[in-house]
Design a protein that fits this description.
Elements (H helix, E strand, L loop, with lengths): L1 H5 L7 H68 L6 H16 L8 H24 L1 H8 L2 H88 L14 H48 L5 H15 L4 E7 L6 E6 L12 E2 L4 H9 L3 E2 H5 L13 E9 L2 E10 L7 H31 L10 H18 L3 E8 L2 H8 L1 H18 L5 E6 L2 E7 L3 H19 L9 E8 L6 H17 L5 E3 L7 H10 L1
Parallel strand pairs: 10-11
Antiparallel strand pairs: 1-2, 1-6, 2-3, 4-5, 5-6, 7-9, 7-10, 8-9
Helix pairs in contact: 2-3, 2-4, 2-6, 4-6, 6-7, 7-8, 7-11, 8-11, 13-14, 14-15
């Protein structure tokens, strides 16, 4: 029991026991620190520098030998052939050997210094006895005149270099021996120090365990009993009682405070739980609005904005369904744009609602919240499909204009609570702004790719589509036909009837193209009276058929009118039959158009190539 533990009278004070434990731990730490410092000092100031010098010297010996080998090889080749190009390895190795000889000066010691001197003397003898003579151009010419003298000279060089190799290897052996010895000494010291430190730590561990047991009996057990009571109070068990008559003064005072604390904690816990619940819900709702605003801030897709607004509303007011309505004209009907109950991959049904009728119409007309209960005059109003609950509508306002309405249905009657309504108003504000921005972006993008006079695609769209379709031809091996056309004598039409009549002709031409080509084809206006058609999955023969159909449509459209002179010339080219890329395809079609105009206009011409379709053109020209 808790009271039994606390009534055990301590034989020592808390301060005395803690002081003893601290002094023991401090002594163990001092011993460990001194031992570690001694080992670290030896490694840092003695062993490691020695090993570093030996490693540098060893690397210098290897570098010197490698450089001397390159020099000796280059000199032998030069002496044997007299070609200066063989001196390149020698000249490249000179700074390497010089740097290596300089680096070997770090080697000092009883055995190292004589070995270094012997190696460098052997190197110098090789230079004086052979290398210097080999570099002498006059000597090189003389040696080349006598094979016997050259052979003797090369033999002398080999002997001197072998002497250098032997001295270099002896030096390397001495350095390797000293380096291995230094490493072994360092390892032995580290292992010995590790063993000593381990023993010291084991002794400290044993002493620490003993100190721990003493502290447990004198201090920890009473404190643990109080801590257990505190945990029960924290967990909500406010009926716990603590008695500590025989415990030390500080523990008795702590036990007395537990009773008064329990009652206060109970009241505060209930209050805090209520506040936390409300705050958590509001934070989650506000986070939904923030996430929505972040998602749609840079979106240019109205569909994406609508879906995000629907999802956010479902979470924000715990709605069972959400619908979003949009209006195209000020004061006009509203069109259903999204229904959360419809799969996102399925088109929204064509449903409209009248301005001023129902909660949606009233919200759009008056620019404020409208509920079904308010509209129908009953607090028990049902949803549009007969489901119980409350339906409300909030307008989407940009500036002073209502561009749509968000309609939501909840299981609760009436509008959302005040905080949820404020957040919904924030949501509708972000939704309206994002929808307006997306609409403006889409309208601007469409205008940038459309010819204002004819309604056909413009030159920019043509360049984009041509590159795309040519890449598809290359990838999939299908056909692509390009038809270029001019309105014949269009300047005369402008001069005779005026530019207004000329614009009307171009508008009629645009109508003919749209009515004649397939839905998979695209017509473009370059500028002036120049037009083009991209016929996808169409070979050259089918491209000619399309051009002849257009030519006939021209004759039929303008026959018997004031525009009876309007005819067209057409040039047809096909890829891959006549071209290999967009540039050559356009050039081929343009050349064919030139042939049609040069041949009398009001006709179709085909680009020159392996698929000449002249036979197909002849009867069509006779009947036109």
């Amino acid at each position: 029991m808790l009271s039994t533990v606390l009534n055990r009278a301590p034989t020592r004070t808390i301060a005395v026991e803690v002081g003893r434990a601290f002094r023991f731990i401090l002594a163990a730490c001092v011993v460990t620190l001194v031992g570690f410092s001694l080992v670290l000092g030896y490694v840092v100031f003695s062993s490691r520098p020695l090993i570093s010098r030996l490693e540098v010297g060893q690397n210098a010996i290897y570098q010197a030998k490698s450089g001397l080998v390159d020099q000796e090889t280059g000199l032998r080749a030069y002496a044997s052939t007299g070609k200066v190009v063989f001196l390149e390895p020698y000249n490249a190795a000179v700074p390497q050997v010089t740097a290596a000889d300089r680096a070997m000066t770090v080697l000092n010691g009883k055995d190292l210094v004589p070995a270094v001197i012997a190696t460098q003397l052997a190197e110098q003898r090789w230079r004086d006895a052979w290398a210097t003579r080999a570099l002498d151009p006059a000597n090189a010419e003389r040696l080349l005149e006598s094979n016997a003298e050259l052979s003797a000279f090369l033999t002398v060089g080999k002997q001197e270099f072998d002497a250098y190799r032997l001295a270099n290897q002896r030096l390397l052996d001495v350095v390797s021996r000293d380096l291995d010895g230094a490493r072994r000494t360092q390892e032995q010291l580290l292992f010995g120090a590790a063993g000593a430190l381990l023993a010291a730590q084991l002794l400290a561990l044993g002493g620490g365990i003993r100190r721990r047991r003493i502290l447990l009996r004198a201090v920890a057990d009473p404190v643990d009993a109080l801590a257990g009571a505190a945990k029960r109070i924290t967990a909500g068990d406010y009926a716990v009682t603590v008695t500590a008559e025989e415990a030390p003064e500080e523990l008795r005072a702590l036990a007395d405070d537990f009773g008064s604390m329990a009652a206060a904690l109970h009241a505060r816990q209930q209050e805090a739980e209520l506040v936390r619940t409300v705050r958590t819900r509001r934070t989650a709702q506000l986070q939904h609005v923030v996430n929505f605003a972040r998602e749609v801030a840079g979106s240019t897709s109205t569909r994406y904005v609508l879906r995000a607004a629907s999802d956010a509303t479902l979470l924000l007011v715990e709605a069972t369904w959400v619908r979003v309505w949009l209006t195209e004209d000020i004061g006009g009907d509203l069109q259903l744009a999204l229904d959360s109950r419809t799969d996102k991959n399925v088109a929204v049904p064509d449903v409209t609602t009248t301005l001023g009728i129902g909660p949606v119409g009233r919200a759009a007309k008056y620019g404020r919240l409208a509920t079904r209960a308010e509209v129908e005059g009953s607090a028990d109003a049902f949803g549009p499909d007969g489901e119980q609950g409350g339906t409300f509508a909030l307008p989407l306002i940009v500036g002073a204009r209502v561009i749509g309405v968000i309609e939501a249905h909840t299981v609760e009657q009436g509008p959302p609570a005040d905080i949820a309504l404020e957040l919904m108003e924030m949501l509708t504000s972000h939704t309206a702004t994002a929808l307006q921005a997306a609409r403006v972006h889409q309208d601007t993008a469409a205008d940038a790719l459309t010819d204002a006079l004819t309604g056909l695609s413009n030159r920019r769209r043509f360049d984009q589509d041509l590159r795309l379709e040519v890449s598809r031809v290359r990838r999939y091996g299908n056909d692509l036909s390009l038809v270029l056309m001019d309105v014949d004598h269009f300047k005369q039409i402008n001069d005779t009837f005026g530019h207004t009549q000329g614009d009307a002709v171009l508008q009629d031409v645009g109508d003919i193209l749209r009515a004649t080509i397939r839905t998979t084809d695209t017509a473009y206006r370059f500028g002036g009276d120049e037009l083009a058609i991209l016929a996808r999955e169409t070979d050259g023969e089918s491209g000619v058929v399309l051009a002849e159909r257009l030519r006939a449509a021209f004759a039929e459209r303008f026959r018997g009118t004031t525009k009876s002179r309007v005819t067209g010339s057409f040039g047809v080219a096909c890829m891959p039959a006549h071209a290999i890329d967009e540039g050559s395809l356009f050039a081929a079609a343009d050349a064919a158009l030139y042939d049609a105009k040069a041949g009398g206009r009001d006709r179709v011409a085909v680009a020159a190539g392996p698929e000449l379709l002249g036979v197909l053109l002849t009867p069509r020209r006779e009947t036109s």
